[in-house]
């Protein structure tokens, strides 16, 4: 049985560890944080699995891998046998009068990138929107609807994956800082560990070996809003970044996110971002006026120059990074690619830009 060492137990590391286990590999994980909490970008994520919405700003590869993940997540949830907060009620895209041009542009772009005849993007009039989300019709008389889109709870998913990995025999070196990752070996402060193959999934922590990586700051706010009753994910057209409201589905909780700022700063949310996010929420539904601010989260998304993921392969070492704003959306599909490569060293992804052979 091949022994795989995984450096970094964020969402990529944990999903991949699970897929490696299912494929019959022995797995050892390393992370500088404790198993149940930490600074991984994964803990900050809203957990959206929205490949259609992402085509507006991303390459088609993100859509294709995202669609693959969208079909893999329900199976992973079933295998894990625990609640990861997976919900598939679709996304609604709405815009205020001032942002109608952005709304039309979004619709055109999505239709054009997918296929001119794609029926995945449905345009709803006020009566149709009322049937789905009656409370939105006070402010909006039309919407676009993407019924397949889904979301999960990032924190529950991280916790459930950890529990099941440990229960299934993964060795986990927690609170263990990695000093170097190279072919067949992971070095920590006081030891070098050897494996048949090593996978580096340290996100921004891999920057010393992958200097091109940069952080893209994201901030979001969790609100408890008993006066709001929305069941679907809502995207509100916004001139600067894709703004969304994700219903958690319990305790009247909603995530309002997320900013997208070129910065490595992980400090607390700014006044400007708070004002923008909260104003947008209030402009969508006045019920957010009396909502409680339960939590704010900030982190940096590990990103490459083109905001696309990349898998670099060499003998005994696979580096996977650049998941940007798509870690949950893409990790099952990317993990699947890596497992294929582990099983067959000649395997080449049909996404030619994704998997590179390096020296
Ligand atoms: C505000 C915000 C909202 C987001 N919303 C979404 C969303 O809705 N949907 C979506 O798909 N994605 C979303 N994302 C993006 C997602 O969080 C990232 O793409 C994803 O977390 C990247 O996964 P990763 O495993 O590569 O890195 P991380 O999750 O950052 O994990 C890296 C791990 O490596 C460990 N590590 C690093 N260096 C070392 C070292 N030297 N030694 C030991 N351990 C180390 C870290 O402790 C960490 O656990 C969001 C991100 C932000 C910031």
Secondary-structure element string: EHEEHHEHEHEEHEEEEEEEEEEHEEEHE
The third-level CATH topology of the largest domain is: FAD/NAD(P)-binding domain
Unreliable stretches: none
Compute the number of helices. 8
Helix content: 25-40%
Characterize the overall form: globular
**Whole-number tally of structural domains:** 2
Topology:
Elements (H helix, E strand, L loop, with lengths): L2 E5 L3 H12 L3 E5 L17 E2 L1 H4 L5 H21 L10 E4 L5 H15 L7 E4 H7 L9 E5 L3 E2 L2 H14 L3 E3 L4 E5 L2 E4 L2 E4 L2 E4 L13 E11 L8 E4 L6 E5 L5 E5 L3 E2 L8 H14 L7 E12 L6 E5 L2 E5 L5 H17 L11 E3 L2
Parallel strand pairs: 1-2, 1-12, 2-8, 4-14, 12-20, 19-21
Antiparallel strand pairs: 3-7, 4-6, 5-6, 9-10, 10-11, 13-16, 13-18, 14-15, 15-16, 19-20
Helix pairs in contact: 1-6, 1-8, 3-8
The structure holds flavin-adenine dinucleotide.
């Amino acid at each position: 049985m091949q022994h795989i060492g995984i450096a970094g137990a964020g969402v990529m590391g944990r999903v991949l560890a699970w897929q490696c286990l299912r494929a019959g590999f022995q797995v050892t994980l390393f992370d500088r944080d404790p198993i149940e909490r930490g600074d991984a970008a994964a803990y900050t994520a809203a957990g959206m699995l929205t490949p259609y919405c992402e085509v507006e700003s991303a390459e088609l590869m993100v859509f294709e891998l995202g669609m693959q993940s969208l079909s893999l997540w329900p199976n992973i949830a079933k295998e894990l046998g625990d609640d990861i907060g997976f919900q598939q009620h679709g996304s609604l895209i709405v815009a205020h009068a001032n942002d109608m041009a952005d709304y039309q542009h979004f619709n055109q772009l999505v239709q054009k990138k997918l296929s001119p005849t794609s029926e995945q993007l449905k345009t709803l009039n006020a009566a149709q929107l009322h049937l789905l989300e009656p409370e939105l019709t006070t402010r909006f008389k039309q919407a676009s609807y993407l019924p397949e889109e889904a979301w999960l709870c990032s924190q529950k998913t991280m916790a459930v994956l950890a529990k099941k990995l440990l229960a299934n025999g993964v060795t986990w070196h927690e609170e263990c800082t990695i000093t170097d990752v190279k072919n067949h070996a992971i070095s920590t402060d006081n030891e070098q560990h050897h494996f048949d193959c090593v996978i580096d999934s340290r996100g921004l922590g891999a920057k010393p070996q992958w200097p091109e990586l940069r952080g893209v700051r994201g901030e979001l706010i969790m609100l408890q809003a008993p006066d709001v009753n929305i069941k679907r994910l809502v995207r509100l057209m916004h001139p600067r970044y894709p703004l969304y409201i994700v219903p958690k589905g319990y305790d009247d909780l909603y995530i309002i996110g997320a900013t997208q700022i070129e910065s490595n700063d992980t400090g607390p949310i700014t006044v400007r971002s708070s004002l923008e996010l909260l104003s947008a929420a209030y402009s969508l539904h006045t019920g957010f006026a009396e909502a409680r601010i339960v939590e704010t989260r900030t982190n940096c998304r590990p990103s490459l120059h083109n905001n696309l993921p990349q898998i670099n392969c060499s003998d005994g070492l696979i580096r996977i990074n650049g998941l940007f704003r798509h870690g949950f959306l893409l990790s099952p599909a990317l993990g699947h690619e890596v497992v294929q490569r582990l099983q067959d060293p000649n395997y080449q992804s049909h996404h030619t830009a994704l998997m590179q052979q390096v020296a």
